[in-house]
Amino acid sequence: MEFRVLFGRERKELMKLQKTIKNLPESERPYDKCKKYGPKVLSDAELLSIIIKTGTKGKKAIEVASELLDGSQGNLLNLYTMSMKDMAEIPGIGEIKAIQLKCLTEISDRISGYRYNRELSMNSPSSIAAYFMEDMRHLEKEVLKAVMFDTRFNIISEKTITVGTVNASLVSPREIYIEALKEKAVSLVLLHNHPSGNPSPSKEDKEITDRIRLCGNLLEISLLDHIIIGDRLYYSFKEEGLL
Hints:
By secondary structure, the chain is of the alpha+beta class. It is built from 10 helices and 5 strands, in the order H-H-H-H-H-H-H-H-E-E-H-E-H-E-E. Mean pLDDT is 81; it is low at 1-6.
């Protein structure tokens, strides 16, 4: 009951704020809107227009931002999926702004990594998935990573093993364990992404995991987990009792 009352009050306050914002003159958007109410009230296009700053002939910055958002994803994920070249070809963006926007996405990824690094634990698949989520969930191709650990479960290194379709015919346990032996690792975690956003394992995913686990047992390098990254979702073989 307390939650419903609080939610209702917050909703009324938000509606009141939205009405106030609508009455702002055009000259007060989006800079003054952000200054008065904070960045959370800004739309995606308004946020981008502040970064873009200026438009082009016949187009305001917010119209240029809207065109950028109209790409394949239809939202801010376009900043990840569009190439720098394609972004630069949008009138009002150009090479310099494209570079700035790509740097912005990289900053976002790194902030996310630093945030979750503090909570990273080998006994917590969720913390490992969170640490790699932003780096891997936007990838358009399947990428298989091996993360190596020492005796104290500190990360020694992370290596990209394959780029492309992850299946039993392309992934070689030999490649993985050559890297692990080079780094003198005692254990490792595999991660790969599903561009579809659905992290459910395929038959091939299960076969790969079993082959790599068996090879690791012979070399005394433990496979701690295999985590599949989806779109803000993950699947852990360890959590599901398959490792």
